[in-house]
Amino acid sequence: MNLHRFNQDGVVAFASYRAGLTLNPTLPPPVELLQDPALTELMPGDVDVPARSFTNRLETGRFLNELLDAAKVRLPERDQGLWTWLTLFYFDEVCPADGNGRRNPKDEARLIAQVDNFQRFYRHLLLGPYLIVRAHHERPERAIAFLCKQLWEPGEIVEQLASRKELVTNHAVAEVATKLYYDPSTGSFKRGAGSSVKGAPRRLAALLNQLDVTYYLYGMTADELLALLPKEFDRFRTKVV
After folding, report:
1. Taking CA 123 as the corner, what is the angle to CA 121 and CA 125, rounded to the nearest 5 degrees?
2. Contact at 8 Å (CB) between 169 and 202?
């Protein structure tokens, strides 16, 4: 299917489906909306969008960057209709059904990109990985702590650190989060990284907000930033990658 975007009526129609899904978790995705001429606009470039699955958020972000580069979309991060259309197209990836056919859409910002809210647009399950990979395009693996989980479960690190663009796009911060919380042997988080223990992502986010007042975080290396972290982070720092 060629790449489209929803117009405002299309976004409203999808939002209505999402609202209905909270009441009826087995409601099937309205895939007929994807090519409804009254609700969609064909994007220029005649770019095909393949049906596919994604291993994790890193793979998703890479794919979306390649797709939208090929489509030559201008300012895609501002296009709510585009991300809403892609969300419905890949709905089985962003909101998969369980064994009983039930889906849990959770927070609205996960499925409908809040493109005018800089504290919430990274919560979108497609726009978030796209932006993180774009910000770290020369080496997205440094941000693997934000990208290692499956598409529909971003994880605590994203929840705590991605609400501030200046943190999630900062190369040193991304590398520190990866060194602290990512376990390359499992391809996922270290034990305790998703909890509220001392040194966990919630505490790192709070500490970075404090450090940002007195330090220029964009001018620091990951090692310099790690050296500022107090002993409570040692449980994660002992086995950095």
Report:
1. 110
2. no
102/18 Cα distance (integer angstroms): 13
What does residue 235 show for φ and ψ, rounded to 5 degrees? -60, -30
The residues, any chain, with a CB within 8 Å of residue 69's CB and separated by 6 or more, are none
**In order along the chain (241 residues), what is the average pLDDT of each group of 10 residues?**
98 98 97 98 94 97 97 94 98 97 96 88 94 96 96 89 86 96 93 85 93 93 96 81 42
Handedness of CA 169, 173, 179, 181 (dihedral sign): negative
Residue-level length of the chain:
241
Rounded to whole angstroms, how far apart are CA atoms 230 and 143? 22
Q: How far apart are CA 114 and CA 126, in angstroms?
A: 12
Global pTM reads 0.93
Q: Classify strands 188-189 and 182-183 as parallel, antiparallel or unpaired.
A: antiparallel
pLDDT of residue 238: 66
Domain boundaries, the chain: 1-140, 155-241
Instruction: Give the Cα separation of 87 and 152 in Å (integer).
Output: 11
Produce one character per residue of 146-177: b if its CB has 16 or more CB atoms within 10 Å, e if not: bbbbbbbebbbbbebbbbbeebbbbbbbbbbb
The Cα 219–Cα 55 span in angstroms is 33
Give 219's DSSP letter.
G
For residues 208 and 221, the answer to whether their CB atoms sit within 8 Å is no
Separate counts of helices (H) and strands (E) for the chain? 12, 4
Report how far Cα 192 is from the mean position of its chain's Cα atoms: 21
